[in-house]
Amino acid sequence: MHFDRLNYKPMHEGLELPQMVRVRQCFPNHSIKEPEKYLQSRLRALEPAVIGGLRGKRIGISAGSRGLPHYKELMKVMCDQLREWGAEPFVFPAMGSHAGATAEGQKNHLAQFGLCEEYLGAPVLSTMAVETVETLEDGFPVYCDKYACEADGIVVFNKIKPHTHFKYKHESGLLKMICIGIGKHMGADTFHAWGYDDFGPNLERVSRAFLRNVNVVFSVGMIQTPSDDIGYLEVIPTDRLLERDAAMQEIAKNEMPRLKLPKIDVLVIDEIGKEISGAGMDPNVTGRTERRSQFDGFQRIAPDIEKIVLLDITDAAHGNATGAGAADIISYRFANKIDFSSTYTNIITAKSFRMGAMPLYANNDRDAIGMAVANSFLLDTSKAKIVRIKNTLMLEEIECSVGCLEEIAEHDDMQVISEPYGWIFDENGNLW
Fold this sequence. Notes:
Structural class: alpha/beta
CATH class of the largest domain: Alpha Beta
């Protein structure tokens, strides 16, 4: 679908955007040096009882859709180590309905991260077929990827982070990988149908049922740092899976990067994408969740943001515009990158229709930002508090308008690192 440029008289005609400064936000940083070697050492420290008897066994490793630092290198370490133990490893996509909910789409999604047989030295087996491994007393089915179910065992490998729709001791981590990632489209669709208010407890009971029926040899949990590295990594025996998933979730919550200013008139986000957040842009950063029952939990940790402008969809998202519905304005570039088929498949599976709604779109970046500033209930737009970020993962260096300087000075963990400068748009009115 192609959207034409709009013929209208913008209300912000003649508006001059305030100057900006670059700002460094400081967060805890526990980056692991040489994470590949660290993972190898932790694998080799596993008890013999955990890894014994793997020789000749087919072992699947779950691979999710989220971006992760050192993703392909860590996966290769996993494959190499399993082969050293005499096992026959393979990798399987574990991403619910992402990548169009097709086997080919999910395999291609992993390939863009470098996760392919040529690099890993192990097959990447992709299917949307599942097996029902148990049905709970209330009729809740527990699914498992067909290839994983037929294997002699699996390794659950995933990033651990706060979820975008609910708050609980288990959120987006190893349990969610089991229930929704490894459950494929069927698992994701069924799980979301039970609603977000009981999402956390359901993660626990479905995971316990899964573990009764599928041989999880061990798991690997990781936490990503604000500087886009691996901050924590644990190789977890299965009898401690739930305990360590909850403990790492608490660490992830405490150290998650956030926007430190309490009030923002306009937040400009250069890009959103499914590899950045399940919601395209993380509600833990923006406070924009569609789940009214969970609204207060997100508002407590996010700034008060009047308008959000989205400028682009990442290449890795392949047009999946999930999250656009939580914004107010999108650019012309953004509108014409939307793949409605991929977006709707994901949105319908997650039962989060409003996240796929299309906001107003503007003719270019300057138009979009100007429209947001002019309509943010400001008596003096020269004092507008504008923040621009690349995405909701990369928050160490951001841009702030000069109207934010007074509040920035009150934060010991925020530092202005440039002189004020103006916005630079090209001949088409875009930032790039």
